[in-house]
Amino acid sequence: MDLLPEIAQRVSVRDFTDEPVEKGAVERILEAGRLAPSAKNRQAWRFIAIQNSDLREKMESACFGQEYVGAAPLIITFCTTNIEYRMPNGQLSYPIDLGIAGSFMSLQAVREGLGTCFITTFDESDVKALLTVPFSMRVVTLLLVGHPRSVPEKPGRLPLSRVISYDHW
Ligand SMILES: Cc1cc2nc3c(=O)[nH]c(=O)nc-3n(C[C@H](O)[C@H](O)[C@H](O)COP(=O)(O)O)c2cc1C
Known about the structure:
- It is built from 7 helices and 4 strands; from the N terminus they run H-H-E-H-H-E-H-E-H-E-H.
- It is an alpha+beta fold and 169 residues long.
């Protein structure tokens, strides 16, 4: 199957070297998120890029001490700037919008030769306090980014026949 290599190669990395992520790569990764689609093109998001080591350590504490959080040289935090907008199907748009932006950024990071890991195991109120996120907004996910020290094997997926159907459930 002729897939984008970034999709085939991407795997969650939880072991990073100390090497910082080069400025150009940081900017291209963030740009990939900026270009992502969102419901009604509302772009109701803010991406906070964290590289300061003291703040990364504090973020690690807000993530219940998961060591690989503070070890990642770049932590991108995906925040809402609106939590109310519902799409015509009645569902909230922000988890979808931010999830798509996260996908775009993670694939750009793979293109840059970097590893990533989404992190949702965090205390949201602690993260909000650390990053001065307004009380009424949400922090949806974090994306760790860095140079992999080791890359795990890609976990398996359900076969196509289990997850795809044509024309009916
Ligand atoms: C929405 C979401 C939340 C996740 N939260 C965490 C997390 O809190 N901690 C963690 O170590 N990995 C987290 N992951 C990574 C998943 O465990 C990982 O993507 C999954 O096991 C599949 O492995 P792969 O990414 O290597 O293909 C999360 C992934 C997603 C998509």
